[in-house]
């Protein structure tokens, strides 16, 4: 990957180590002990193992952490944070569907500076660093060029079974569907959805009630590949259950107007 920053290099190293465990566990999926955190939100033993390996490598920096499994942890440096989702796409993973990723981001003073989303099964690493561009493995990525909304390839996710606005989310899905030729996908991994918009595979993505760790790395990928990303109503991306939209920029207005 043609990005060279100390933080990016450390994330890369941590990711390559952790992905070995992830690949091994995916091969042994039946043997995994699964515990249920809340309906629709499973955490596997593998999730915890992967996060531990990532944190062990990254904690050498003495930065703080925000992770899905461990929450907020203060390091020596409070203004520098690693944001981790060890497995994004857990439900796919549990079902033996090869579409999930490790998502790692580096945040400084509340701004995402670097991000990596790594799909270990396809060996696709999506990476970006502020001012250095976005890459898929060693190739520079750009968002798609499509401007015709009706023909755009969109992706979304949710609602979770625990959502209190399930009906509204499904109604919105219907509303958007009727304005397109129904090229709407649901992949089960928000991190990969954003990475794919950055790579020009999808033209747009939106989702209600998403968490910061699901999208942190994706934010810099979208920005550095020429796309637009913003919260729909919140003032920033931080926090839990926020609503976001990300596109190739050309269909941004059309999609935003429907949400
Ligand atoms: C989930 C995935 C999914 C999205 C959910 C997320 P997890 O993350 O990104 O695509 O629809 O909202 O919670 O639980 O697999 O890490
Ligand atoms: Ca996630
Ligand atoms: Ca996860």
Question: What would you say this structure looks like, in words?
Answer:
The protein is α+β, with helices and mostly antiparallel strands and 259 residues long. It folds into two domains: 6-140, 2-Layer Sandwich (Fructose-1,6-Bisphosphatase, Chain A, domain 1), CATH 3.30.540; 149-258, D-Maltodextrin-Binding Protein, domain 2 (3-Layer(aba) Sandwich), CATH 3.40.190. The chain is built from seven helices and 15 strands. It has helices spanning 6-27, 45-58, 90-94, 166-179, 190-198, 212-224, 252-258; strands at residues 34-38, 41-44, 63-67, 71-73, 77-88, 101-108, 111-119, 124-129, 133-136, 139-140, 154-156, 184-186, 204-210, 228-231, 242-247. The strands form three sheets. The protein has an eight-stranded mixed β-sheet with strand order 4-3-5-6-7-8-9-10, with helices on both faces. It has a five-stranded mixed β-sheet with strand order 12-11-13-15-14, sandwiched between helices. α1 (6-27) runs antiparallel to α2 and α5 packs parallel to α6. The radius of gyration is 17 Å and the shape is globular. The termini are far apart. The model is unreliable at 37-43 (pLDDT under 50). It binds D-MYO-inositol-1-phosphate and calcium ion (2 copies). One calcium ion (CA) binds next to β5.
